[in-house]
Amino acid sequence: GVESCIGSKVVSVAVTPNGYADAVHNNRFVMPEERAMKLSDVLDILELKTKASGVFYIQKQCSNLTEEFPELMGDVESHIPWMSEALGKLPDAVNFWLGEEAAVTSMHKDHYENLYCVISGEKHFILHPPSDRPFIPYEMYQPAKYRVHDDGSFQVVDEEGVEKIPWIPLDPLSPDLNLYPEYRKTRPFHCTVRAGEMLYLPSLWFHHVRQSHGCIAGKN
């Protein structure tokens, strides 16, 4: 398993009080605390062998599969050949994600092509095509980060000297249609990607992502 192969590895883990990393909270765009931990310790928390305050998610975007977990490259492809052929290039990044059910990716869009590959568990997507953009609200937010104190409590700390960030305040799981009535005009797609399946997500498509507990996924 993953633990026997790379359990002693130190990895970067996003820690939040509510599972929402990189999301709007109390009129701030709040990023997670980034904590260096042994992977075996993260797995103990996810498997409830160890108690810990907060929600833990390995979710780096910096090609962490190839950079942090080269030991796993013998078990997975470094790229998806048909995708590389279709796009005419190899992936810019190959990412490894591992998290619990409470970890949620708030709705956003990327300026690059994504291919999600689920290894275990499942991911639940809410998708909007770019044509829904006029009906999806954006606002500007002060960037901040969660900081965890020794007693396990979380504090939101503003990032000094950083420009405001545009982000989507709406939660598609329970949209406030009184505040954002235009959202009624959108046509979201709902899909579940299970172990062994892939989802191609074109550039500029909006996506909100949930997952099952202990879901392991890769993203090209």
TrEMBL record:
Highest rank taxon of the organism: Eukaryota
Domain JmjC as annotated: residue spans: 58-220
Any matching Pfam family: Cupin_8
InterPro entries membership: Cupin_8, JmjC_dom, RmlC-like_jellyroll
SUPFAM superfamilies: Clavaminate synthase-like
PANTHER family per record: BIFUNCTIONAL PEPTIDASE AND (3S)-LYSYL HYDROXYLASE JMJD7, HYPOXIA-INDUCIBLE FACTOR 1 ALPHA INHIBITOR-RELATED
Protein name: JmjC domain-containing protein
Organism name: Pelobates cultripes (Western spadefoot toad)
Lineage: Eukaryota, Metazoa, Chordata, Craniata, Vertebrata
